[in-house]
Every structure is written in structure tokens, then in C-alpha cells.
Amino acid sequence: IANICTDAYFVWFMLRHSSNLSIDPRTVIDRARRRLAVTAREVGSILAIGIPSAITNLTQSVGIVMINLFLLPYGTDAVAAMGIALKVIMIAVLVFVGFAFGAQPLIGYNYGARNMPRLRGILRFSYLFLSLFALVMTVVLSLSDRLLMRFFIEDATIITLGAGMLRVQLLSLVCVADVMVTTCTFQSAGKAVGAFVLSISRQGVMLAITLFVGSRLAGYQGVIAAQAIADLLTAIVAVVLFVVMLPELRSRKAR
To answer: How far apart are CA 109 and CA 3, in angstroms?
Structure first.
């Protein structure tokens, strides 16, 4: 019901207050030439931004399923505790997503205009702000770990397990923030490959690898630490891709 109400509001807003946007499907058809008025390049640009975002949402569900499967041998309490811990982590992650997406128009506009000095400033602020925010959230959530767990459940065993899991996941929160900014930067700059690689890494490929290796080497503790290690590895990949795919940002000769 909430989604329906939200969509209805957006439709009403575009119909009443937007002169440039339309939901009429006829606007994308070139009647004179009897074909879509959207070019292949425009479709490609839409997909370059949309597909990584869709994959990110998909891998969130896949990642939770993988973690639960590896935790099942240690009992349902461990599965329940991890589920709650991940929900608490999502409080911070969704804030990261909001700020990172908010920077996308600025990043895209300045990259398209080749205004590299201003783009560097925007990225510097984005990385610094979200990294500091992640550090603050790490401290706050770590200090209130058991209190936050009690909002979801009263079982003392699950609270203890979940508090420990939460503290481990928080160790890589800064990495998550930096990966978010880098992914949005690639999307805004049309670097589809970079955005795709990061989208499938954190809760997809990297998590699968760290879960498999961690469970073999350290058992239960390896499974608990798998997501944090995957976040760190994905952040390293993000740095490498950023340097390789956006060399113009390092050139001081750019306008």
C-alpha cells in the first residue's frame, strides 16, 4: 500500500508540476519515422546506470541467503542473530546510499563538462564526509550494540550472539561507504564496467569467496567475519578501478 501511494504521488507530481517529464508512452515514439525516439546510445546510458543498481539490490538478497546457509550448521540462533545484526547495519548503509546517490547529478554534470577541478572537490568531499560519518556510526552502533539488539528480540542468547556479530560487521563500515561513492561515480561517468564489477563484488563474488575460505579456515568465526573481509577486498578493488578508469582526475592540466 505504501509503494502504491508513493507511486501515485510521483505520477500526480509529474502531471501537475513537471513541464519536462512525462509518463505518456507516446512521447518516446517518433510517429513520422514510426520508430522509438530514443537512440541506442541513450538506451545504453540508461542501462549502464540501471543494471549495476539492480545487481546491487539483487546481491543483497543473495548475500543474506549465502550467509544464512553457512550459519545453519551452527544453529538457528546464529541465523536469527545475524539477520538482526545485518538489519542494524542497513541503517547506516541506506544513509550512505542516499548521500552517494545525491552526489550523482553533480558528479555526472561536472564529468560531462570536463570540469575536473570541481569534480575532484566534489569527490574529495563525498569520500571524506561519508568516511567520517561511517566512523561515527561505527562508534555509536558499537557502543549501543546490545540495546539495538533488544529492539528486535528479548532472547539473551541471540542478543549476545548478535552484538558480537554486529561489532565485527562494523569494522568495515568505512569500506562500505567508499565503495558506495565509487560505484555511483562510475555510474555517473558512464563507466559501466567499473560499476558492474563493484556491484557484483561486495555481497556477491567477494562474499562467496570469503564465506567459503573463512568457513574452512576459521569455522564459525570465519563465517562471521566473511562480510567484513569482503567489504575490505571490494574497497581495494574500488581503489584500483578508480585509478585505472579515471586517470583524468589525476591530471592537473584538466580544466
So the answer is: 30
